[in-house]
Amino acid sequence: FSSVAAIVSVMCHLVYEACQESDHQVLRDVRKVLRKEAEPDYVPSSPQEIASGILHTAYMGSEKASTDATKGRAQTLAQEIGAYHSHLLIDPLVKAALAV
User: Where is the chain membrane-spanning (predicted)?
Assistant: First the structure.
């Protein structure tokens, strides 16, 4: 998770810099990816804004093996990058799969 998130973050920074330099092709692509095509003057305000539209992360913890610290680190990383983030316990899913 963290290595992919870091790579996406770097890419969002590069795209943001190109947008700030008025690279018209990059701006068209960003508007398309972020579904802002109806806003011809749209320019992202930060790399985090770009990331929030393309990167969704999830912390999938378990009751016995996860800690608040690891959950918190995942949340912090997602916030710093700008990713949409959620968390859930996977124990009910594991129990259901084992019951089959």
Answer: none
Burial of residue 27, with CB atoms counted within 10 A of its CB: 0-12 exposed, 13-18 middle, 19 or more buried: buried
| Cα–Cα distances in angstroms (integers) from residue 33 to residues 9, 26, 44, 50, in the given order | 16, 10, 12, 9
Q: Is 22 helix (H, G, I), strand (E, B) or coil?
A: coil
Q: What percent of the chain has pLDDT over 70?
A: 99
Residues 6+ positions from 94 with CB-CB distance below 8 Å: 62
- β-pair partners for 88: 60
The token pair at 4 is: 């992919």
Q: What is the pLDDT of residues 8-32, one digit of tens each?
A: 999 999 999 999 999 999 999 999 9
Q: Count CB atoms within 10 A of the CB of residue 93.
A: 12
